[in-house]
Amino acid sequence: MLSTDSKSNSSLSPLVKMLALLSIVRWYNVLLIVISLYLTQIFIFNKGENILETLLNLPIHIYTLTIVFITMGGYLINGFYDFEKDLINHPETTYFGRLVSKKTCLNTYVILTFLGVSMAALISKKVLLFNLLLAFGLWLYSHKLRKKPLTGEVSATFLTISSFIGLYVFNNLELNKTLLLFVTYIFTIDLTREIIKKMVSLKGDLIVGEKSIPILFGIRFSKYIILSQMIFSLLSIITIIPFIIEKKIAIYFIIAMGIILFSIFLLYKAKTPSQFNKINTAYKILLMLAIFSIVLY
Fold this sequence. Notes:
Blueprint: H1 6-9, H2 14-24, H3 27-45, H4 51-55, H5 58-89, H6 102-118, H7 125-143, H8 151-171, H9 177-200, H10 202-208, H11 213-244, H12 250-269, H13 273-292
Helix pairs in contact: 3-5, 3-8, 5-6, 5-7, 5-10, 6-7, 7-8, 8-9, 9-11, 9-13, 11-12, 12-13
């Protein structure tokens, strides 16, 4: 999403450059991560009993800020490597990205990553180590792993849920069975979406010569892979339901089953990128509902 011509960008106003950077770091995704972290801390780890106490707890704000910095840095370095492909797949959404030079992108990435890692030292050594591993994982994904079929999708999914795993480190907790099942469910949902995104971006991957699951295995076999993930998600829901049947969050999982079943119907008919994008949209809704359903836990 980046311009290589720094001279042409020198006359841009600071406000335009700031808006361009916000576009590259996917501010809307970062905002959802922030919301989900606070909701998880308040309604899952604190059981919704001490909301004010949580909001007055400085360490949780520092932790969230470190995750924001590292995540934004991850989007910057990923945009750096994905510029050509994004121009092909999403030409209408890369306008702002073309206003930012590669030098600015890399410098901002270094600053944000440094802040995200160093500020973690204010919380604990465990959080510092976790954030260091997360920052390294994001760089490794952008530089190497994203180009490897399936490995790229799995690593992207793991990195997506890692900030929530970090909350266990932050709270010095051990995973319980219910939360482990919930994390597994989120993992399957996000992994399914990552593979679907490869179906949508097939044209760009072909042009830039990047290997992906649909390119290696074909669309038909890739659909079977997606279907297996959807079925696994349904099994995850069936497994978790007995543990939360008396909680209001069970309502979300009932709705989620309906969305997944509808997505299976769409998958059966899907042949074009636009049709796969409809499934992608359904899964975006599924993930957003999962985030806000935390208040029902």
